Amino acid sequence: GDALPHLHVMDAVFTFTGLLPWNLFAQSLTSAGTSVVGNANLVTKVYFPRLVIPSSAVLGTVPDFLIGFAVLGVLMVAYWVAPTWNVLFLPFFVLLALVTALGVSLWLSALYVLYRDVQYIIPFLVQLWFFLTPVFYPTSEIPNGWQTVVYNLNPMTGVIGGFRWALLGQQAPGAMFWLSSAMSLVVFAGGLLYFRRMERVFADVV
Question: Are the C-beta atoms of 76 and 90 separated by less than 8 Å?
Fold first, then answer.
């Protein structure tokens, strides 16, 4: 009889641990994806590195993340769920989440300057990405086949898996994690290059 309540407790902590980095990512995309156009007055009147705009929008989601992290801490204490020594690696996974969010946001914010319909695509993109990310279930339950390729190439798979490993000692980083993390860097590098190439025309188009 004691095992079942413990299972429910671990399910709650497990789910919250996945939602924490996901919310950081989703909020970043929502706010940073339209940030350049939202600051059109600054872009057209003052010269400064345009990269500051989406970067600030992404960093602006960190306070909410810290509040959520405090709630998770209370939840873990309340249910006697002790973090593992892997928690020392947690800052790395937070950084990876921010890099991933900024990388995608750079793509979206630059595209939004040219194509205003992007603002309608962002909510759909976030929703679709959510279903392709193991937020509510462990990566071990991902079925084999083409789905595995999709999850491996999903940068947020490694981020969420890393959070659960760091805090709960579950989902130890494997090949899926390293490939997913590499995709985070690819998305960021590509977004940075595209953003820098397009920022020359921002003032003319925005």
Answer: no
